[in-house]
Amino acid sequence: MSLFLHYLSMPYLLEGIELTLEVTALGLGGGLILGLILAGMQLSRFWLLAAIARAYTVIFRGTPLILQMVFAYDALPHIGIKLPAVLAAGLALACNEAPFIAEMLRAGVLGVDRGQLTAGQALGMTPSVLMRRVIAPQAIRTMIPAFGNEAVSALKNSSLASVVAVQELTLRSTQLASSTFDFFSIFFASGLLYLVLTATISVIQLFVEWLLDLDRTTRRERKLADYLPWRRVDLATKLELADATVADPDPAELADTPPLALTREERARRATTIARNNIAVEAKDLTKSYGPQKVLDGLDLTVRVGEVVALLGPSGSGKSTLLRCINHLENWDAGTLRVGGRRLGFDENGKRLSPRAIANERASVGVGMVFQQFNLFAHLSAKENVAGPLRWVHGMTRIDADRRATELLDRVGLSHRADALPRHLSGGQQQRVAIARALAPNPSVLLLDEPTSALDPELVNEVLEVIRRLAIDDGLTMIISTHQIRFADEVADRVAFLSGGAIIEEGPAHEVLTNPRNPLTARFLSVMEADKTPEAVR
Ligand SMILES: Nc1ncnc2c1ncn2[C@@H]1O[C@H](COP(=O)(O)OP(=O)(O)OP(=O)(O)O)[C@@H](O)[C@H]1O
Q1: Domain hosting residue 183, numbered range
Q2: pTM for the full predicted model
Q3: Which of 66, 337, 424, 465 makes an SS bond possible with 420, Cβ 3.0 to 4.6 Å?
Q4: 313 lines ligand 1 (CB under 6 A)
């Protein structure tokens, strides 16, 4: 025992730890940088970069680290690169770690929900903003356990540096054992030192996981989480609300008045006004196919400023695709789309715009979009979901963006849930936050893609009420894909019925819905009437 304790505190072995940590740090740090580059290459749109990264991965993952260390130390001098042993071992370890780290990074990035990326694009985020603000914060959280594993394995692999005569812990233990023949005490002491190092890495990993955990709930824990850059909450508001449970307002109370519905005369007046307004959205002969399947087939649609158009039609008729084209989340094959008179997706010379230019165009044209699955940014509070894009895309100051977010959350009846994460909100609340987020930059047109389809029946009304007020009170131009026939009748000025990627019937909402001329429209409406669930016509 005394021998074991003697070796455990022996300066000769302890100095070996320094070199072990040096090689590990070089391997992990270098591996992270190289891994970032490799992951970027693999995720890039350029196949050649992806192929080079893949080839690198095959070579460095498929050959033993010990050979790579020998190569870095003994073969590189032949091409004039002579590295000190520690650096050569660190370089080999970095090159070996890089493909593993790259795969972790790639998995983290690909693991972020695609709906959130689409929502970010729809809000006008450029690819780099999307990466920094949406993908990276979420990917990093999921990668921490795997990165902890990789750090432990790099530390243990650093012992192979002994092959190029780096005097790290394992080499020193071996040397000591061969001169004293006291194998058991020396290797037991050295094993314990390794264990202390790996346990330290595990503790750091657990601490980082704890720090990044957005779900912590106790008061003390919450304090730390609140300072995370992506979970900035309004501490003053939170303290006030901490002990008070505030109930959601009744949907009908969102504006202190009963649900709105227009009378026949009001509808007629509205129709006359709208007919005089400028064109907000114009699709001409729009055609789009997915492989052999034609999804939009020469579709024409004109929507005027202030008009609310409901898109109806059976599942697969192309409603979502049309909305996605209007926001340029999809490319189309032929035809033109103009929003506010501007031809989307092309410069003045008719050349296709880059993804970055399209993002900027989206932000400046002002088309907001609300999705069926809400697509809120999962790592951000409700308030940050609204305020964040205003700062990152529209350059608003933090104070102005926060003020606007508070105002909009108040408008959708959710100011008391401003600090809640999306997963702590009900579906209806999430959709109301999503509506607030889409409204924040003051869009000229709001597209709503089946905004209530993913909601439980009892939550549908609270969302419909918010939309109803936007249409009737605020006069917002809206195109809504919906299966809610009654809602379409109450809110829409016009209904367009799609079938097979084209509009086969359109006209004033009440007229089309009560007296359809096309047999397909009539059949669809009667099926919807017979069974209120949309599945009936799917
Ligand atoms: N990314 C895609 N790749 C291949 N096919 C697609 C893609 N997106 C949509 N489609 C197909 O295009 C057709 C139209 O889809 P779209 O989502 O526009 O219909 P929809 O009218 O909105 O239907 P729903 O009411 O069910 O949402 C469908 O047949 C669908 O399978």
Answers
A1: 2-212
A2: 0.81
A3: 424
A4: yes
